């Protein structure tokens, strides 16, 4: 890739965190094979049984708090530190591995496991502790209105204003570790492509929107992303 890029967008999914030991959603033993999405990841489930949903994320927090970034996350920092281009990361992941790897310009469009939002006053705060439906909001002091700041199916994504700004301008779109089945994130590559970007997909296998990518690099992101970064920096 001798070409010099000016605006790189990296879309990441659960696959970039797999080598940090975190479960993906749709693999054989994935999160959605052991839980019903309808019970823990929809706004109806939360309204129906908030503490069941809180417990699902309460159990997830310690593992995500302990998880360490892997060479894929670290490769992004190397690119951001050495490549003269705007590099933004749009992540579907709720873990904080991009931040732990010191990646910059990270946009969590599906929210974050260590953030809580108050449905009464909109206050968002960070915690790695358990949250229940009895807890009070630290800002408005109302109890029973706290929700993990995670985007449930049926809710709007976060930072879409930023996404709408970045995609039309990007000249290189790199998708890492996402199955490309959940919209609107799965449609981002199409916007980038139609805006003239080169598109690259890093995954263990061909994905459902693979026809939209100019290039496919098969293999674990912990190996393929560092190689791609070295190619870009050459
Ligand atoms: N390196 C690269 N890719 C990998 C690796 C790896 N080490 N391990 C797994 N993958 C790939 C899988 O082949 C799969 O295509 O990562 C992808 C993970 O796909 P999903 O489990 O569907 O996760 P994701 O695409 O992030 O899901 C998107 O769906 O449930 C919602 O909100 C949730 O953000 C999530 C969204």
Describe the structure.
By secondary structure, this protein is an alpha/beta fold. Helices cover 32% and strands 20% of the residues. It has helices at 31-34, 37-40, 43-48, 50-66, 71-82, 97-100, 160-166, 188-194, 221-233, and strands at residues 7-12, 86-91, 106-108, 111-118, 124-126, 146-150, 172-176, 198-203, 215-218. The strands form two sheets. It has a six-stranded parallel sheet, sandwiched between helices. Strands 5-4-6 form a three-stranded antiparallel sheet. The chain is globular. The termini are close together. Residues 13-15, 18-19, 24-27, 30, 92, 110, 177-179, 182, 202-205, 207, 220-221 line the site of adenosine-5-diphosphoribose.
């Amino acid at each position: 890739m001798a070409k010099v890029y000016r605006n790189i967008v990296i879309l990441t999914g659960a696959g970039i965190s797999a080598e940090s030991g975190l479960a993906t959603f749709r693999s054989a033993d994935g999160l959605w094979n052991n839980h019903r999405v309808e019970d823990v990841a929809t706004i109806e489930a939360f309204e129906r049984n908030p503490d069941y949903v809180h417990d699902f994320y309460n159990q997830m927090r310690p593992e995500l708090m302990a998880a360490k970034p892997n060479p894929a996350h670290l490769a992004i920092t190397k690119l951001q530190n050495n490549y003269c281009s705007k590099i933004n990361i749009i992540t579907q992941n709720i873990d904080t591995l991009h931040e732990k790897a010191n990646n910059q310009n990270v946009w969590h469009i599906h929210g974050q496991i260590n953030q809580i939002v108050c449905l009464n006053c909109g206050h968002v705060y960070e915690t790695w502790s358990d949250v229940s439906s009895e807890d009070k909001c630290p800002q408005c002091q109302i109890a029973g209105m706290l929700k993990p700041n995670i985007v449930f199916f049926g809710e709007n994504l976060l930072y879409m204003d930023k996404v709408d700004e970045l995609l039309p301008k990007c000249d290189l779109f790199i998708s890492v570790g996402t199955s490309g089945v959940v919209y609107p994130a799965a449609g981002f590559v199409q916007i980038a492509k139609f805006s003239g970007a080169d598109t690259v997909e890093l995954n263990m296998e061909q994905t459902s929107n693979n026809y939209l990518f100019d290039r496919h690099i098969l293999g674990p992101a912990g190996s393929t992303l560092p190689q791609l970064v070295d190619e870009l920096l050459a």
